[in-house]
Design a protein that fits this description.
homodimer, mainly alpha, Arc Repressor Mutant, subunit A, 2 domains, DNA-binding
Chain lengths: ~210, ~210
DNA sequence: TTAAATTAAACAAACGTTTAATTTTGTGCG
DNA sequence: CGCACAAAATTAAACGTTTGTTTAATTTAA
C-alpha cells in the first residue's frame, strides 16, 4: 500500500497522539483536527481507526533486520565489538520508535482488541534468529561463555531502555535531565554504555 | 481511608479490568457489572473513575521497602547472596502486581490525565536510596566494582521482566510456555536466574 | 426515625462510522 | 489548448452507541 502525503500526515499525527493519549484516549476527531483534514478521511483512507493502527505498526517496523545482519556479517571485527554495536543499534532504533512500541506493548497485553500484530511478532522472531546465530558463533569461538539464555538478552537490552522510558519522570529528576538535549545525550551515552557493559559482563564471565 | 468489603471488591475488579482493557477501554458499567454493584456506587464511594485509579495505586504500592531493608540488614550474609535475594524480591513483587504497574507506566507517559502518582515516585526514590546504600557498602568492602550506574540497576531488573511480560505472546512460543503453571515456573526460575546472573556479572567484573 | 446504601433513570457529551452532496482532479478527444 | 466526462477527494451533517456522572426515589441498617 502506497501512501500519499496526506495519508503520511495522518499516520504521523496518529502515532504521536496514540502514544501520548493512548489508543482509546485518542479520538478520530482529534487526529483529523491535528492533521488538518476531515474526520471522514480516516475511514476513507484506512477503513477504520483500528486499521490505521495496524497499518502504522507494519510500516514502522521494517528494515531493522537488515541493519542487524550488516553488523553481524562484519567478521573482521571482534565479537565484543559487534555486540556493542548491536546493543547501540537496538537502543537507537527503539528510542526512535518508542511511541509505536508503547502502543504495541499495550495492545499485545490488551484483551479488548483483536489485533494480533503478526508482522511485529514474525519480525521479532527473525531478529532473534540472527542474534542467536551470532551468539552461538561467539560461543564456538570461545569468546562468549557456554550457558546463556539467548532469548532473554533482548528483553534485558530493550527492557532497560523501556523501564527508563516509562519512568522518565523519575530518572529525569535523579539525573537532572532538565532539557530534551541532555536527555538525548544521556540515552546515547550513559544508558547505552550501561547496557553494553551489562551484556558484555553477562555473556563473557562464568559464575 | 478504610475500605469495606464492597469497596475492596470494586478495587479488585477495576484493577483487573484496567490492566486487561486499559483505563479508557474499561467502562464503569463493566466494572459495576463484574463487581455485581450498581454503576452509581463507583461515584458514590470513590468520587470518580479517575479517583478510583489513584486510590488503587496508592494502596497497592506499600510495604515493599520494608522487605527490601530486611534483606539488606542481614549483614551476616554475603553481598552476592543478598543481591540475589533483592533481585528475586523485585521480580516476585513486580510480577505479583504487574497489572497495576502496567497502568502506572501508561499513565505516567500519558498527557491526557493529570495524575501525578506522587506516592509511586516517592516510594521509588526511597527504594533507590536503600539499594544505593547497599551497593556502596559492597563497593567499600571491595566485593562490587567501582564504576556502577546504580540508578540504572533497577531498570535492568524490572525492565527485563517487563519486556518479557509485554511480549509474553512471543516468549510463550519461544519457550513453549503453554500452561499458566509453566509460565509461572519459568519466571520464578529461568527468568529470575538470568537477571541474577546478569546483575552479578555487571557489578562484579571490571571491563 | 435518621443516616447510609442502593437503585433505575436520565443527563449531556463524546465516540467511530456512514451518508449523500459537492468540489477537485485526471484523462481522452476534437 | 479547451471542453466533457468519469473518478477521486473532500465536506458537513447525521447515525446510533456508549461514555462518566448525577438525580431523585426507594430500600436497608443502625
Amino acid at each position: 500500500m502506497e501512501l500519499n502525503d496526506k495519508q503520511k500526515e495522518i499516520v504521523q499525527v496518529a502515532e504521536k497522539l496514540f502514544a501520548e493519549y493512548g489508543f482509546d484516549g485518542t479520538s478520530v476527531r482529534l487526529i483529523a483536527k491535528e492533521a488538518g483534514i476531515n474526520i471522514a478521511m480516516i475511514s476513507y483512507y484506512f477503513g477504520s481507526k483500528e486499521k490505521l493502527l495496524e497499518h502504522m505498526v507494519v510500516h514502522r517496523m521494517s528494515g531493522f533486520k537488515v541493519n542487524l545482519d550488516e553488523i553481524i556479517a562484519q567478521d573482521d571485527r571482534s565479537y565484543h565489538d559487534r555486540l556493542n554495536e548491536i546493543v547501540a543499534l537496538y537502543v537507537k532504533r527503539i528510542h526512535k520508535n518508542n511511541r509505536i512500541y508503547k502502543i504495541v506493548h499495550n495492545e499485545l497485553t490488551n484483551n479488548a482488541r483483536s489485533l494480533t500484530f503478526e508482522h511485529y511478532l514474525s519480525q521479532k522472531k527473525k531478529n532473534l534468529d540472527s542474534v542467536t546465530k551470532f551468539i552461538e558463533a561467539g560461543q564456538k569461538a570461545h569468546v562468549f561463555k557456554k550457558h546463556i539464555e539467548i532469548p532473554l538478552l533482548i528483553p534485558s537490552i530493550l527492557g532497560t531502555y523501556f523501564h527508563f522510558h516509562y519512568n522518565q519522570r523519575f530518572y529525569e529528576e535523579s539525573y537532572g535531565l532538565n532539557t530534551p538535549e541532555s536527555k538525548e545525550l544521556f540515552i546515547e551515552t550513559t544508558l547505552t554504555k550501561h547496557i553494553q557493559k551489562m551484556l558484555n559482563a553477562l555473556i563473557t564471565y562464568e559464575d
